[in-house]
From TrEMBL:
Transmembrane segments: none annotated. CTP binds at residues 104, 114, 149, 163, 167. Residues 10-221 form the DNA/pantothenate metabolism flavoprotein C-terminal domain. One of its GO terms (molecular function) is metal ion binding. Its cofactor is FMN; Mg(2+). Residues 15-225 are annotated as: Phosphopantothenate--cysteine ligase. The chain holds residues 174 to 398 of 398 of the full protein. GO terms for cellular component: phosphopantothenoylcysteine decarboxylase complex. The gene is coaBC. GO terms for biological process: coenzyme A biosynthetic process; pantothenate catabolic process. Keywords: Decarboxylase, Flavoprotein, FMN, Ligase, Lyase, Magnesium, Metal-binding, Multifunctional enzyme. Pathway: Cofactor biosynthesis; coenzyme A biosynthesis; CoA from (R)-pantothenate: step 2/5; Cofactor biosynthesis; coenzyme A biosynthesis; CoA from (R)-pantothenate: step 3/5. This is Coenzyme A biosynthesis bifunctional protein CoaBC. It comes from Panacibacter ginsenosidivorans.
Amino acid sequence: TEHFFRGLALSGKKVLITAGPTYEALDPVRFIGNHSSGKMGFALAEAFYLNGASVDLVTGPTQLQTNYSGINVTKVSSAEQMYEKCSIIFPSAHIAVMSAAVADYKPIEVAPEKIKKTTEDLTIRLSKTKDILKSLGEQKKKGQLLVGFALETNNEREYALKKMQTKNTDMIVLNSLRDKNAGFGHDTNKVTIFDKEGNEFALDLASKQNIATDIVNIIIQKINA
Ligand code: CTP
Ligand code: CA
């Protein structure tokens, strides 16, 4: 049995979180992926859970495991699989936070057998994956709170605000890559949170656990406002 204290601020609320990278297969042994560790998404899932929420965590391939058996974890691999799972869960969710680093492109053809090395040059054609966050933004109903992440290297603020608008999210968490201890693979992160009411919360560099707690607290305030 687990012994820990769960708050009640989000009891009765159903939360969907995405985490980790996606893997887009090239052939039976290779894929296109990225360096996302899943840490931010797992930390968010745990922070929501510890505030009493019912949590569905849909994660791409990662080494991580959660200590809380009450969190409903679904493991997926590709963007397509992540999309399928999210579209089933989202209609009944009160809050959705998309922290996964979803591949933007996937190979158009997946070779049925291992691709052998032949020519000096190899061209792989890619097509866009489905934008999960944007699709949930289009389905969003009154009373649902949708949160996206944005990873930018330039024009950060402008691009993040634009993502909030085009994807119809209520909040966007901008990952700042300016700090060398922030982002992919690190245990710490530096983020700025924007909401559609025009508020801006610039958080200090902190552990992903602390950032997750701050994000969840901002969401709790919003829900109770
Ligand atoms: N996202 C998603 N599905 C995708 C791509 C992105 O759900 N196929 C979500 C991410 O989980 C994140 C947000 O969209 O919450 C923004 O991701 P990001 O990569 O920063 O932006 P993109 O819209 O993919 O645009 P770009 O990479 O060109 O900046
Ligand atoms: Ca992207």
